[in-house]
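Entry 14. Structure prediction run on the chain below.
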Amino acid sequence: MQAFQKNSEIFNLLSEGVSEGIIVVNTQQLIVATNSSAGRMFGYSKGELVGKPLDTLIPRRYHGHHGHHVEDFIDKSERRQMGRGRDLHGVRKNGEEFPVEVGLNPFKLYDETYVMALVIDITERKVKAKELSHWARIFDESLNEIYVFDAISKYFVNVNKEAQRNMGYNLEEFKTLKPLDIKPHMDSPQFQLLIEPLLNGSRDKVKFETDHQRKDGSIYPVEVHLQLSTFGE
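Output returned:
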């Protein structure tokens, strides 16, 4: 710990402008330095964590397993993402747990080995992922047939289970098709005329009646509601 403290001013200078939490531990898994972002994230004041065991920031149920994990990491001395494929949690001073992403970086200073942990609070990311999962289930489990196709190439990019069941195509087969491939009584100019108001922003929604043709060749009447949705580009 003394060896690291000799360079504490350099560490502070380099780490204070970083938004991620930085925690440095020695081979005894004692915290030798943290930046302000880590203090705010875990609810500790400046310097309060120095000298405390790393387990202070980890939920009690993970203590035994986590210690062996860090020891193994120090022995191998390689940079890695901690807990890849698993959910990791930190614990704040008030006992509140929160999801984190942790990158581990080993280094040597004055012949002493240390590990720098880069910690990111991913609470908001987890909330958004849960919301997306919820909407994805609604899409897939809807009793209405829902089709998503690329506005430029016109190929289907997603089709829900009800549409797959009724039409007789699986998702991979649908991805080789375009809307006109399942609309036997409509040609390209007619379809382009229908979607043009969506593409130029003059309308938010287009509704029309046509026929759909299943994989087995049978035809049934449908009412189609088209809306524009953007994802990235």
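The longest strand covers residues 97-109.
Filed with the rest of this week's runs.
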